[in-house]
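Why does residue order matter? Because the sequence determines the fold. Keep that principle in mind as you read this record.
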Amino acid sequence: MRSLPQRPTAPGYSILRKSFALLFITIFAAYVLYSSKVILKKDTDCAVGLSTEQKLESADPFLLANSTLISSDKNDTSPGLKEETNLTHIVFGIAASAKLWSGRKEYVKQWWRPGQTRGIVWLDNKNVTSDDDDDQLPEIRVSENTSDFRFTNRQGTRYALRLTRIVSETFRLGLEDVRWFVMGDDDTVFVVDNLIRVLQQYDHNQLYYIGSVSESHIQNIQFSYVMAFGGGGFAISYPLAKELEKMQDKCIQRYPALYGSDDRIQACMSELGVPLTKNGGFHQYDVYGNLLGLLAAHPVTPFVTMHHLDVVQPIFPDEGRVESVKKLLDSARYDSASLIQQSICYDQRRYWSISVSWGYVVQIVRGLISPREMEMPARTFLNWYKRADYTAYAFNTRPVMRNPCQKPFWYYKNMTRYDKERNQVIGIYKLHRESHPECRWKTISPAIIDTVVVMKTPDKDRWLKSPRRDCCRIMQARRKASMTIWIKNCDEGEFSDL
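Structure:
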C-alpha cells in the first residue's frame, strides 16, 4: 500500500520546541551544579563538626591545652624562642653578708666569668673592704630593709627575711633577656656549663622551680622534702619569678615562724601551686667530714653545685679549700659534662675493683665488688646531726670497708692536659699515702701502683642522650708502678663485667 504523506510541521512550532528543550537542559544543569555544591559543603561541615566533636569527647583536656600551646609556639616567629638557653639568659642572685664576704668571695672567683656571667651579690650592708681584683666579681648591692616584716622563729635570725626577697629584688632590676634566676649562697660553687645543660632541658616560658633537697633525712623532715635547699642553689624561671614578685611580701607575712629563706620561698611556691622539680646535681652537702664518698659515687646526672665548703674538709687532702675548688674546676675546662662522673671496671688478673670519678679521684680496692655496691657512697662523712647514725641519710650508703683488706687506695687528680692531635683528655692521678691495716689475703696489693693515667675523649653532648655510666677499660701500662685506664661511652652489649 501506498503510505500516506506526513503532515508538515509548522515552522513556528519547531522553533518553540527547541527553545523549551534548551531551557530545560540549562535549568537542569544549574540545579545539578547548585545541588552538588550544597551537598559538598554540608558534607564538609558535618565532617569537621563530627571530627571536632569526637576530639572533644575523647581527648584529654590537658592534651588539648598543650596542642593549643604548641600551635601558638609554631606561629610565634620570635627569635628568642628558637635560641637555645645559654649563659646570657641566666642571672645569679648571690646571698652574702658583709662580715663573711672577704673570705667567701674567693669561692665566687673560682666559678664567676667576668664579662660573661650576670648577677648581683646582695649584702646586708656595704661595709666591705675592696681589693684590686674585685672587678672580677659580680656587682654588689645592699638588700632592702625588712624590719617591718614579722619574724617569730627563736632559733633562726632575721636575715632570712632579707635573703628570701633576693629573687624579687633581682627581678625588679628589670634586666633584659632573662630566662632564669639562679639563687645561691656566697659559698655555693657552680659548675656553670652543667647548670646551662640542666636548664636547657626545661621550657623557660613555663613556671619552673628547680633544685634539690638535703642529704640529711632529719633536715628534710624538719623543713621539707619538697623544698629546694638554698645553699645547694635553685633556679626559678622568669614567668615564675614574675608571679612570685607580685605576691611575695604578702606571702612572707603569713609565715613568720619559719626558720630560713628557702622554706619561705617554698611556702610561696606552694601558694602559687608550683612544685619542686628535683635535680640530683644540686648539692646542699649537709654533712661533716670528708666529701670523698659522695663525690666518688656521684649519681648519673650533671654535677651542678656544691655547698658548705667551709664546714667539710678540703676535697683534695693536700690543698686548701679554695685551692681544692680551683683544682676540681680545672678538670671542668676540658670536659665539664663528665666532671665527677663515675666509671667502674675490674682487673681480673689482680683481683681488683676500680672506680674512677673523672677529674677527681680513682679508687682501687682488693676483691671484686659489684657495681651495685660501688655506685653507693662510702661513709667517709658524718651526719649533720652528730648523734644520728647512717640511717639518717636521705640516700643509701655503705661502709668504707667490710674487711681490713678492702680499705681503698685513693689516687687524687694531680694534673690534666689535652692532647689536641688525638682529641684526648689525659689525667694524672697520684696515690694518697696513708696507713693501711695488715692484710692476709694472698693477692697483689694496689700499693705497687703509684700513678694512674686516665684517658678519655671529651663528650660535651653526653646529656643529650639517655643517662648512662661510662665504661672503663684497663690498658697495658708502660711501667709496673702505673696503671692506664681508658674511659669511653659504652658500646652495645658492653657492661662492667665481674
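The first strand starts at residue 90 and ends at 95.
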